[in-house]
Amino acid sequence: MNPTVRRFFDYELSKRPAVRDNYLALEHVKSKPFSYGALKGRIQFNPARIVSTSAKTDRISLEKRPCFLCGHNRPADQSALQISKDWELLVNPFPILPYHFTIASTSHIPQNPDFLTGIELADKLDGMVVFFNDDGAGASAPDHLHFQAVPEGFLPLMDLIDNKVPLPFKAYTGVYDSSLTPDIPFMSERPLNMYFRKTPKGIRYAVIPRKAHRPAEFFLDPPHRIMVSPGGIDIAGIFIVPVEEDYNRITDKDVENIYNQVTFK
What burial class does residue 164 get, using C-beta atoms within 10 Å of its C-beta: 0-12 exposed, 13-18 middle, 19+ buried? Predict the structure, then answer.
């Protein structure tokens, strides 16, 4: 990880005890393995993610709440690391992995999949996987343009891509070169998740079109409901379940069914 980013992370946790406790809690989080085709991932019971998982993302709900990614609405003790003129790095206060960042636009503009910005951010953030949740593909703040970043080595999907293993769902993968233009055909297949990682051969990317944001089980009444809202981390093999009863009963068959509902073959 970039030393500047690591120092920023340590500084944030040193002055924000509640956020530090959320990261320390990951050391004791319950998880169990799952398999979906070649994807060997883990189901994580993470109750702190209930806010994101259950977030209302319709236009009226978004207009009623202050945008938590805008600088003037953030907590007074939250700092940002300026990584370019238009982008700020924030420590995610409700983490899924030991280092979890949000990369927020300095402007309050809607979530829109900017492939070339993903390439540029990955180039700046050595040792990280930069990813994007589209509106309708896991974004809990679709009203404010943002990416996320986690350390490389944590997302099973990236290992499959590096080793050119066929994925169990539709995906466009490759290594970026300048012959690609902003008019890349697959970028029209919204909603989608995007992933970028800097490698010795260039920026490796994956773009995964999404069939749906949430599976049918999300909308059922207990005990049939499974509270899952797959975003980029879930699709990449870290499947987040914030309700313990759901975690205890979810099986590989359930996970496969959810993937089949939200991705294309």
Answer: exposed
